[in-house]
Amino acid sequence: SRYNLSEPLVSNSFRSGKPLSYLSDQHILILGDGDFSFSESISSVWGDGRNLVTTSFPERSVVEKQYPTAANSISTMLAKGVRVLHAVDATKLAMTASLSGMVFDRIVFNFPHTGSDNIQRNSKLVLDFFANVGGFLHKDGQVHVTLFKRQFDAWNVLEACKQTQLTLVAEIPFRATFYPGYSSKNNTADKTVGGESITYVLIATAKSSPLTSPAPTEGNASNNSNNGQEELKGDAEPPDDSPMKKRRV
Questions:
Q1: What whole-number distance in Å separates Cα of residue 91 and Cα of residue 128?
Q2: 66, 137, 152, 234: which has the fewest C-beta neighbours closer than 10 Å?
Q3: Interior/surface letters 107-117, b for 16+ CB within 10 angstroms, e for the rest
Q4: Residue 133: in which H helix or E strand, if any?
Q5: How buried is residue 92: exposed, middle or buried, by Cβ count under 10 Å (0-12/13-18/19+)?
C-alpha cells in the first residue's frame, strides 16, 4: 500500500467516503483558489473566518476580471474576517512576506496546474509546492492536494512526496457537491484533466523548513488554471493578536 491509514481523522473519512472536514477552530490556508468559490463555501458555515487564509496566484484585479463572481466572494469573506491574499505563488511560500511566521493545521491546494499540458512543468509545480510547504505546517497538520486520479501517476506525485519528506496517508474521493457553490476551474486542454478527482492527504515525515528565507520576490509558477507572471506583494502583516499569527509548537 502506498499510504498508511494511521491517523484517526483520515482513516474515518477514507473508510466512509465522507468529505474532509474544515473546522472554524483549525488554522487553514487555501492556495490558488481561482474564483474563491471553494473558500467562500468553507467560510459560509463559519461565523468567524479569522482562522482562514485564502489566496490567488494573480492580482485581485485580474481575478475579478477573469471570474465575474469573485468580487462578491471576496467581499463576503472579508466581512467575515477571512484573510484574502493575492499574487501568492504556491511554490514560493517562503518568499511571501504576508505569510511569514504563520503555521497551519490544514494547507489545501485544489487542482494545481501550470496552465499547460506539459507533464514536466506540472510535475515541477507539485514538487516545488511540496518543497515549500513544510515550514508552514503545524506539527500535527495535513496537506490536502486534490488532483484528477490520472495526474497522480503522470506527475510523479508519490516521488515528489519522497523527495520532500511528506507521507501520503490517505486518498479520499473529491466531489464538488460536498462544497455548495464551489466551481472548479480546470485547464480543459490538458488530457490529464477529467475523470475521478481525489484529495491526497499528506503529513510531514520530518519537520522541514522552507527552502529560502521570507522576502518579497517575483514568481512565475502558476497554480489552478492561471498562468503568467505576477509580482508577489501580499498584504500587510496581521495584528499581533490574530490567531493566525500565533506560532504553535
A1: 5
A2: 66
A3: bbbbbbbbbee
A4: helix 119-133
A5: buried
